[in-house]
TrEMBL record, chain A:
The keyword ATP-binding applies. PANTHER family: HIGH-AFFINITY BRANCHED-CHAIN AMINO ACID TRANSPORT ATP-BINDING PROTEIN (PTHR43820:SF5), HIGH-AFFINITY BRANCHED-CHAIN AMINO ACID TRANSPORT ATP-BINDING PROTEIN LIVF (PTHR43820). SMART domains: AAA. This is ABC transporter ATP-binding protein. It comes from Ancylobacter radicis. The keyword ATP-binding applies.
UniProtKB/TrEMBL annotation, chain C:
InterPro entries: ABC_transp_permease, BCAA_transport_permease. This is Branched-chain amino acid ABC transporter permease. Belongs to the binding-protein-dependent transport system permease family. LivHM subfamily. It comes from the Bacteria. The lineage of its organism: Bacteria, Pseudomonadati, Pseudomonadota, Alphaproteobacteria, Hyphomicrobiales. The keyword Transmembrane helix applies. The chain crosses the membrane at residues 18-41, 61-86, 98-118, 138-158, 186-208, 220-248, 260-277. It is a multi-pass membrane protein. Coiled coil: none annotated. Keywords: Amino-acid transport, Cell membrane, Membrane, Transmembrane, Transmembrane helix, Transport. It is found in: Cell membrane. CDD domains: TM_PBP1_LivH_like (cd06582).
UniProtKB/TrEMBL annotation, chain D:
GO terms for molecular function: ATP binding; ligase activity. InterPro entries: AAA+_ATPase, ABC_AA/LPS_Transport, ABC_transporter-like_ATP-bd, P-loop_NTPase. This is ABC transporter ATP-binding protein. Coiled coil: none annotated. It comes from Ancylobacter radicis. Gene3D superfamilies: P-loop containing nucleotide triphosphate hydrolases.
TrEMBL record, chain E:
This is ABC transporter permease. InterPro entries: ABC_transp_permease (IPR001851), LivM-like (IPR043428). The chain crosses the membrane at residues 21-40, 52-71, 78-96, 102-124, 131-149, 192-220, 241-258, 264-283, 290-308, 314-335. It is a multi-pass membrane protein. The keyword Iron does not apply. The lineage of its organism: Bacteria, Pseudomonadati, Pseudomonadota, Alphaproteobacteria, Hyphomicrobiales. It comes from Ancylobacter radicis. Keywords: Cell membrane, Membrane, Transmembrane, Transmembrane helix. It is found in: Cell membrane. PANTHER family: HIGH-AFFINITY BRANCHED-CHAIN AMINO ACID TRANSPORT SYSTEM PERMEASE, SLR1201 PROTEIN.
Length: 237, 385, 290, 248, 352
């Protein structure tokens, strides 16, 4: 039985200052899927993610989440519907401590237990170690881990991951992929993943969209993902 | 007939507005009365009014405008001494005639200026000896830290000394300061018999409330307060209790002329919070101008000054009889000693009539002979001829 | 005069200056420190609080209630101002200088037109007390303790409550806070209203001791900015020590050489402190902690 | 003589000992890669070399000169340049202006704009020349910053994660570029987590761990080192996963 | 030759709006209009225009420091006042003969610039930035104001020049040009108008060249990202100091011209309100472009004066509303936003 569609876009046009970057983009993500989006620099992957969470105004088309059009909801309302977002470039709150950054992430959940916190801190032990350190003074990779942990604490139903491997040491990249897959299996969380790291895509994704010039130009299934040559072709400059 | 144009540059907004909006109203009242009675030699008065916004640069802009563009016959201008000094070079340059209708620190010797406000010799030579007589010889001065305050304090110091008294302290307060705890303590430490308060501006007026709250309970003497800033109306009694002020006019003066003036004023401007001495100075200045023009049959400054030189330009003002001194072009005044009671009611323990603005003339300013266009002070008198 | 009296009077003067600096600055510290908005209309929120307080007190309500009204009305005005004007300027905080300067002109002159050039005061409550030959106003002690209470309250609010963390997060990376579910507009409104309300509280507290005129806010402005800036970016680490340092300088200089030197001393201290600690006192404290 | 030499560099942040007696020597003409776990102190070491931080103790020599006390801009003028981990560009200025500001010191005014066009072309940003740099995508910002760093024609090029967010092809192109610059005599010190890139360019690899030099050698030696695998590379090394990269 | 054309080529560039023949024809038309208009106007209007012009120099200086360099100086009026007082002290002591007033202008501006060198060294080499810079500069100007306000006594004199406290200093001569057969005294009328207009055009064009030069590039770079600018090898402190001193000299020029215009200078020209005004002018026009600053300053000054003349006590309220609306409607400043809108209308790209 095919799962319900959790998130889809229809003819999505979005961009900055009146100029669309996304040129009528359609995609569909079903509940419990891990879907990757790949494409060259500047094709609009991050813009897509931002328009899904609501940080870029939608000019045309729609974003449908759990059967409802959400393109006009502000970001915080979409977050409250269970969408978690890990941005490219981390965007931690630099002058808040690690603990406070996590606390902002936990804001959505009515009651955050010590167990919830421990779960996240077990994924990323460095966060526990640096619990009182200001996030802005953490190393790049540490901040990236914090950005992921900050989203996981709220148990979102859908996670938008924009290049999560960036700046992270290889073995932790593997850990993150493993954690995400495990979460997906145990909690059914749906994940949209933008990545350049082919290893990570292969380790996580069940399906993959290829983007170019603001549109989806191809879709790869599991077999397509396994085909290294096909992958590289799509990412080629 | 051609109207006679009068420029009016007063602060209708900004820091000083509380004390000066009434000046504009007083001029409007006088002009209306004069026009109803047929104008000046049949010529109606036309007022050209600009709001100078308590801003010196606006005085410069608008003095130039009234003299050069509006071509007014005379200007009524200025509250703060700084504003007067800002526009004075421009009046001199265009050889205009300006009335400064404000009490001030004195000393302006300038043929282009006529001053109707009271000066220190009028207010302090009366007030200080009287206070020393009544309360004792130890005096403390609290004064605004600029020309007016410093020069007035100098007058107080000199008069106290001349009368065998002792200055037990002097504090100078920068303009805009509103917190006085330290000064209150200084005063208590010095134990004066009374305090001379030469505080200017609305911020500094906060002193009275704060001193009362700390139970300073000393008599106070002033040349500016009450008469200019009507603090006794603005503060809750009894913070101004035992404040003595020498002023040439306040609305409480209980003479027929004063009551008539006050009634006319209130009829035209019922919302006026207070009719202060500057309002009366401005009102009488219009009539003074009328008299001079009628006598000279001219609005030319030189013709008017010939009338002034005769020494008999006098009139019956709301305060009483006033005359213009030809040497300094300043005004003699009736000086009222106003006492503020515990309930902030006003009584007048003493009135001095016809107090002359003697100092400038005695010091060597004689505008009938020469026009130095300068401002002098007791410690910086005119050069001896 | 004995040492006790001297010590008390020095302490009293310090407390008096400290209270004035803290209360002048607290609303500004929230609005500037938290939101980066340079609020030149700060003084007018203080004026608003004072006017409302006195108007309400004239109707016969007890002063503490009247002061609360002053604070609440200022907060509401603040929320309105945020909605209409400030909200559109978070991306370009420097432009708030011009906008709030405009607001300050409107408020000052509007008050003059609507309510006239002055308003009658209410008188200072509580009377005075004697200490070693001097009498002091009891109300000034109330002001001092109110200043301490405001500092403590703000510290608790911003460090121990969800709101505090949300507000700080919102100010630092607004889009990310939104993406994590924070209603950033509401947070901005509340923060600005809080700052305006604190300014109103200050106005209410000082109203009984001052002349009420439309321009009264200007007497607080310099002290407010100086304290906030010497404090540095972190409102709660900065304001209290900054006010303490400045109050010592001000009270010592004033008692030694008069008010002019108190003021010039204050300004020179600012210049020196910032030269030594280019990020203010809290910038220094945080760097050391890091 | 080493071009850059760090001697017993220590840096503390409060109680944190971030670089611990680091000794590092860069021979002229080498491409040296610095790898190590997150928080190992790599970026901090860069900041010490650049003078953004002062070391708690230790010494930095550049071209034989002790530069430990030198201001940053003077170090740059001695022949260093840097691409930071977090893009440091002039966001509100156009891409062209960004490059102009970097290059105006090194090219005569007459030749400047032609040079900028050449570089834009090279960075594949010719279409974005008038675009504000802040509006570039993440990857494009990286390119721009690398371009700015390279355009200073430094003797020593410091690159902190130059290929983060780049696709494998772009990573390879970046590697090619660095090799070309190196062939022209530029010494390079690069921090990277992308082993394919390290394998492509590095003459020598230093592993930093907990602020200390943990291992040093060629990429093959490092990859073969089980201790490095344990703290950093993990079970499956990318070299086995993406062998094509090495031969590209 | 080549260097000279390149020098003039700097009149246009990414740091200034307006380029191409269209712009320069417009510029010449406006300049011609400005030259001819006194012939068709009265003395008051001309004198009043000079008055507006005198402030523009300070605004242009602030645009350079703040709009281009990113350093918000809240204390430009300090230099204004210092130069104004210096001119007064010099000319009251040495008179106006032999063209000394012109020497005094140069000396007064130099004194202001020298003070800026000291203050700027203290500020920028102490790495003070952002709002801290604003408050320190404001503090400096307020200290000067407070100090000057209490110099009423006769003991405060320099030579024969009384500082004269809050009432201000007057009696200094206006600008006087030595001329065979009688000095020309430049009262605020047509002659002074042409002198100040000439200065204004000169300063404007030189600033255009400056901000489009490599110096201007670096200044803008510092505004955008000082760390990066330093990491490109620039000693940012020197550039900031340079801009600060030029801006201070221009503020000083304003101060001197203002003083000669009204033969008066006062401490309140260094007070809080006076200090805030240049910021308003510059921000309303568009701080990051000197043309916008120039036009914006003139617009604000004349609009506010007109309002004060015709608006009675509502003037300040209307001014306030206009300021708020301007900021809301024209985010980059009235002139800059307007210019880019016009630019778009005519289909040009990349204006500004
Ligand atoms: N804030 C912005 N304003 C204007 N244009 C922007 C902005 N952000 C991105 N763009 C433009 O939108 C396009 C897509 O950018 P986006 O960040 O979505 O790319 P991307 O696919 O995520 O690239 P990368 O792999 O480099 O992260 C780019 O051409 C970029 O220049
Ligand atoms: N200003 C600071 N205050 C406190 N700790 C700091 C500061 N700067 C860096 N650190 C700490 O120093 C350590 C080294 O940081 P650094 O940025 O050098 O790591 P890195 O090796 O570059 O890591 P990454 O690969 O994640 O970029 C980290 O643990 C970081 O949290
Ligand atoms: N003239 C006065 N009071 O300044
Ligand atoms: Mg992206
Ligand atoms: Mg790093």
């Amino acid at each position: 039985m095919r799962k319900e569609v959790l998130l889809s876009t229809l003819g999505l046009r979005a961009g900055y200052g009146g100029k669309p970057v996304l040129q009528g983009l359609d995609l569909t993500v079903r509940e419990g899927e891990i879907v990757a989006v790949i494409g060259r620099n500047g094709v609009g992957k991050s813009t897509l993610m931002k328009s899904l969470i609501g940080l870029v105004p939608v000019m045309d088309g729609s974003v449908i989440y759990r059967g409802e059009a959400v393109e006009h909801l502000p970001a915080h309302k979409r977050a409250r519907l269970g969408v978690g977002y890990v941005p490219q470039g981390r965007d931690v709150f630099p002058r808040l401590t690690v603990a406070e950054n996590i606390a902002v992430g936990a804001m959505l959940k009515r009651a955050v237990t010590q167990a919830d916190r421990d779960r996240v801190l077990d994924y990323f032990p460095i966060l526990r170690e640096r619990w009182g350190q200001r996030a802005g003074t953490m190393s790049g990779g540490q901040q990236q881990q914090l950005a992921i942990g900050r989203v996981l604490i709220a148990d979102p139903a859908l996670i938008l991951l924009d290049e999560p491997s960036e700046g992270i040491q290889p073995n932790i990249v593997q850990d993150i992929a493993r954690i995400m897959v495990e979460l997906n299996r145990t909690t059914g969380v749906t994940i949209v993943l933008v990545e350049q790291n082919i290893d990570m895509i292969r380790a996580m994704a069940q399906r993959c969209y290829v983007m170019d010039k603001g549109r989806i130009v191809a879709e790869l299934d599991r077999d397509g993902l396994a085909d290294g040559a096909a992958m590289r072709r799509h990412l080629a400059v | 007939a051609d109207p006679i144009k009068l420029g009016v540059l007063e602060d209708q907004s900004g820091d000083f507005a509380a004390a000066t909006i009434g000046k504009v109203h007083a001029i409007q009242l006088a002009a209306e009365e004069i026009n109803k009675a047929g104008g000046i030699d049949g010529r109606p008065l036309e007022l050209v009014i600009y709001d100078t916004q308590s801003d010196n640069t606006r005085y410069q802009e608008f003095m130039r405008r009234v003299l050069q563009r509006d071509k007014v016959d005379a200007v009524f201008a200025g509250f703060s001494s700084a504003s007067r000094e800002a526009y004075r070079p421009i009046v001199n340059q265009f050889d205009g005639l300006a009335f400064y209708n404000n009490q001030y620190e004195g000393g302006v010797c300038d043929a282009n200026m006529i001053v109707t406000g009271a000066v220190p010799e009028q207010q302090f030579s009366t007030l200080i000896p009287w206070m020393m007589e009544k309360y004792g010889k130890k005096v403390y001065t609290l004064a605004a830290d600029y020309n007016f305050g410093q020069i007035s304090a100098e007058w107080v110091r000199n008069i106290v000394k001349e009368n065998g008294g002792e200055m037990v302290g002097e504090d100078f307060i920068p303009l805009g300061v509103s917190q006085f705890s330290q000064n209150i303590q200084n005063i208590q430490k010095a134990k004066p018999d009374f305090v001379v308060t030469l505080l200017v501006g609305t911020a500094q007026a906060s002193y009275y409330e704060q001193a009362a709250a700390a139970s300073v309970n000393l008599p106070m003497a002033s040349s500016v307060n009450v008469g200019q800033g009507y603090e006794h109306k603005r503060f809750k009694p009894p913070s101004l209790k035992d404040m003595y002020v020498t002023t040439n006019y306040i609305e409480e003066i209980d003479t027929p002329a004063s009551k008539a003036f006050f009634a006319k004023f209130k009829a035209k401007f019922p919302d006026e919070p207070y009719v202060n001495q500057e309002a009366e100075n401005s009102y009488l200045a219009v009539y003074l101008y009328k008299q001079m023009v009628e006598r000279a049959k001219s609005t030319k400054r030189d013709d008017l000054r010939k009338e002034i030189a005769k020494g008999d330009v006098c009139m019956d003002a709301p305060e009483g009889k006033v005359c213009l001194d030809p040497k300094s072009q300043h005004m003699s005044h009736t000086i009222y000693l106003a006492k503020v009671g515990a309930d902030h009611s006003i009584t007048f323990p003493k009135v001095w009539e016809d107090i002359k603005p003697y100092w400038l003339g005695e010091a060597g300013c004689d505008l009938t002979k020469s026009d130095p266009s300068a401002q002098y002070t007791p410690s910086n008198p005119p050069p001896k001829p | 005069m004995d040492v006790g009296t001297l010590a008390f009077s020095a302490l009293y003067q310090f407390g008096d200056a400290f209270a004035f600096l803290v209360l002048s600055a607290c609303g500004l510290a929230v609005i500037f420190g938290m939101m980066g908005v340079i609020n030149l209309a700060h003084g007018e929120f203080i004026m608003c609080g004072a006017y409302v307080t006195v108007s309400v007190a004239h109707t016969g309500l007890p002063l503490p209630l009247a002061i609360a009204c002053g604070a609440i009305v200022s907060a509401m005005v603040g929320a309105l101002v945020e909605l209409i004007v400030i909200r559109h300027l978070y991306e370009r905080p420097l432009d708030t200088i011009v906008a709030t300067w405009g607001l300050s002109l409107i408020a000052t002159q509007g008050t003059l037109i609507l309510l006239g050039s002055t308003m009658a005061g209410v008188g200072t409550p509580f009377g005075s007390f004697q200490m070693g030959g001097y009498s002091y106003s009891l109300y000034r002690l109330v002001l001092f303790f109110m200043a301490l209470a405001v500092l403590a309250g703000l510290y608790a609010l911003f460090n121990w409550t969800r709101f505090g963390v949300m507000a700080r997060a919102t100010i630092q990376v607004p889009h990310m806070a939104a993406a994590l579910g924070v209603d950033t507009r509401l947070v901005y409104s509340l923060t600005f209203a809080l700052g305006a309300g604190l300014a109103g509280l200050t106005g209410g507290l000082y109203a009984p001791t001052m002349t009420l005129v439309p321009t009264m806010g200007t007497t607080f402005i310099m002290e407010a900015f100086v304290t906030v800036v010497v404090g540095g970016a972190d409102v709660f680490l900065g304001t209290a020590p900054a006010a303490a340092v400045l109050a010592v300088v001000k009270s010592v200089m004033t008692s030694w050489q008069g008010q002019l030197f108190g003021q010039i001393g204050l300004l020179v201290t600012v210049i020196i402190v910032i030269r030594v600690l280019p990020k203010g006192i809290s910038g220094f404290l945080l760097r050391e902690r890091a | 003589m080493a071009l850059l030499e760090a001697r017993a560099l220590n840096k503390h942040f409060g109680g944190l000992h971030v670089t611990n007696n680091v000794d590092l020597a860069l021979e002229p003409g080498e491409i040296h890669c610095l790898i190590g776990p997150n928080g190992a102190g790599k970026s901090t070491l860069f900041r010490l070399i650049l003078g953004e931080h002062q070391p708690s103790s230790g010494q930095i020599l550049f071209g034989g000169e002790d530069i430990t006390a030198l201001k940053s801009y003077k170090r740059i003028r001695r022949g260093m340049s840097v691409k930071f981990q977090v893009p440091g560009i002039f966001k509100a200025l156009s891409v062209r202006q960004n490059l102009e500001i970097a290059m105006q010191q090194h090219y005569p005014p007459a030749a400047l704009h032609a040079e900028i066009d050449r570089l834009l072309d090279f960075l594949k940003l010719e279409g974005e020349a008038k675009q504000l740099a802040g509006n570039l995508s993440h990857g494009q910002k990286q390119w721009l910053e690398i371009g700015m760093a390279v355009s200073l024609k430094p003797r020593l090029l410091l690159l902190d994660e130059p290929t983060a967010g780049m696709s494998p092809d772009e990573t390879r192109a970046t590697g090619d570029m660095i090799q070309r610059l190196n062939a022209d005599g530029m010494t390079v010190l690069a921090v990277e987590h992308d082993m394919a890139f390290v394998r492509q360019v590095a003459h020598k690899v230093t592993v930093l761990h907990l602020g200390q030099v943990f291992a040093q050698g060629t990429i093959d030696e490092i990859v073969a080192d089980e201790r490095v695998a344990a703290i950093y590379l993990g079970q499956s090394t990318p070299s086995t996963d993406a062998p094509e990269a090495a031969h590209a | 030759m080549n260097a000279l054309t390149r020098f003039f080529a700097r009149l246009e560039g990414p740091q200034t709006i307006g380029r191409g023949p269209g712009f320069w024809i417009g510029f010449l038309v406006v300049l011609t209009g400005a030259c001819l208009y006194p012939q068709f106007s009265d003395g008051y209007t001309v004198g009043n225009t000079v008055y507006f012009f005198t402030w523009v120099f300070m605004a242009l200086g602030l645009s350079l420091i703040w709009g281009y360099g990113g350093a918000l100086s809240f204390g430009q009026t300090a230099f204004f006042g210092i130069a104004g007082y210096s001119y007064g002290i010099l000319t009251i002591n040495f008179g106006a003969a032999y063209g000394f007033t012109l020497v005094a202008v140069v000396l007064a501006v130099a004194i202001a610039a020298l003070f800026a060198v000291l203050l700027g060294y203290f500020l920028f080499f102490g790495r003070i930035s952002g709002v801290f810079l604003g408050i320190v500069t404001l503090s400096v100007t307020l200290v000067l104001e407070r100090f000057m306000a209490q110099t009423a006594g006769p003991e405060w004199r320099i030579g024969s020049a009384r500082l004269n406290g809050f009432n201000g200093m007057s009696n200094m001569p206006p600008l006087t040009i030595p001329w065979p057969g009688g000095d020309i005294v430049l009262f605020p009328d047509v002659q002074l108008y042409y002198v100040v207009l000439g200065l204004l055009v000169l300063v404007y064009l030189l600033l255009r060249i400056l901000v489009n030069s490599s110096f201007g590039n670096v200044l803008v770079a510092i505004r955008e990202n000082p760390e990066r600018a330093e990491m490109l090898g620039y000693d940012i402190r020197k550039y900031q100091l340079g801009a600060f001193v030029i801006g201070a000299a221009l503020a000083g020029l304003s101060g001197v011209l203002y003083t000669t215009w009204g033969q008066y200078i006062t401490p309140s020209s260094m007070g809080m309100t006076a200090a805030a005004l240049p910021i308003v002018w510059v921000a309303v026009g568009g701080r990051s472009d000197i043309t916008s600053t120039l036009i914006g300053t003139l617009v604000v000054l004349s609009a506010f004066q007109a309002l004060t003349i015709h608006g009675s006590q509502y003037a300040l309220v209307v001014m306030g509303i206009l300021l708020v609306l301007t900021v809301l409607i024209a985010p980059r400043g009235l002139i800059l936003s307007g210019a880019s809108r016009i630019g778009r209308l005519f289909g040009k790209r990349g204006d500004a």
